[in-house]
Amino acid sequence: MSHQDPLRIDPDQNKVPQEARNTDIQTALNRLEEVILASLRIPFTRKTLIDEEVILDQLDQIRFSLPSVFQEAQAVVEQKKEILLQGEQHAQEIIQAAEAKAAQLLHETTIVRQAEAAAQEIRQQVEQDCITMQQQVQAEIDQMRRQAQEELLQIRQAAIAEAEDIQNGADEYADSVLRSIEQQLNDMLRIIRNGRQQLQPPPTGGLRGE
User: Fold this and answer.
1) Which among 106, 141, 161, 208 is least buried, having the fewest CB atoms inside 10 angstroms?
2) Which domain holds residue 158?
3) Does position 137 have pLDDT exceeding 60, yes or no?
4) Residue 210 and residue 207: Cα distance in Å, rounded?
């Protein structure tokens, strides 16, 4: 069984719709719950015997589906970049229009200076807006990445803890069963010994004459 790297993003996953990847995660979680509920329960305890291989397979499926979170974040980044590009293009159009207007009013020195100042102000504002949006997008990506890693760690820790509890319960149950069998065997051995003693002929009295 191979284990996927939880931080690796497979480019081929871009071909899978987001809804399908979410369904895969939900299906794997439902399957994990079904495996736990359908596993053999230890009598008189709250413990359950679970196939470790099955649990690990389900965790692999969940781990394989988690990179969709990073794919979604990448899609958000691309969308933000497109918005920024459109904003820059629009701003450039405004700047070009302002510069054209300033050229037309070149004979009026005061108006020309005002137009140039306005264009510069627009350019600076657009650049500042682009920087702010880029910072916001990066912060959102970092937050989504941390959240996905924390969720994966919680799932792994919960699975390990459950497996340890199940193993401890199984050991206790096995010891109890073996102790009961040992007691039964001792009782049977004592009965057999008593039966053999009863089958022994009684000792004869006196000495045989020479």
Assistant:
1) 208
2) 11-195
3) yes
4) 9
User: pLDDT (tens digit, 9 = 90+) per residue, 91-106?
Assistant: 888 988 888 877 777 7
- In this structure, are residues 65 and 17 in contact, taking their beta carbons and an 8 Å threshold? no
Whether 107 maps to a domain, the answer reads yes
Q: Is residue 32 part of a domain?
A: yes
* CA 100 vs CA 37, 95, 115, 122, 158: distances in Å: 73, 8, 9, 15, 66
Classify 131 in phi/psi space as left (phi over 0), alpha (psi -120 to 50) or beta: alpha
Q: Has residue 1 been placed in a domain?
A: no
CA–CA dist 116, 99 (Å, integer): 7
| Angle at CA of residue 126, ends 124 and 127, nearest 5° | 65
98 is written with which tokens? 């302002």
Phi, psi of 41 (to 5 degrees): -90, 145
pLDDT at 184: 94
Closest by Cα among 13, 23, 25 to 74: 13
Both tokens of 184, joined, read 């039964």
**Token pair 């069963």: residue:** 177
Give the count of domains, the chain: 1
Alpha carbon distance 130, 192 (integer Å)? 93
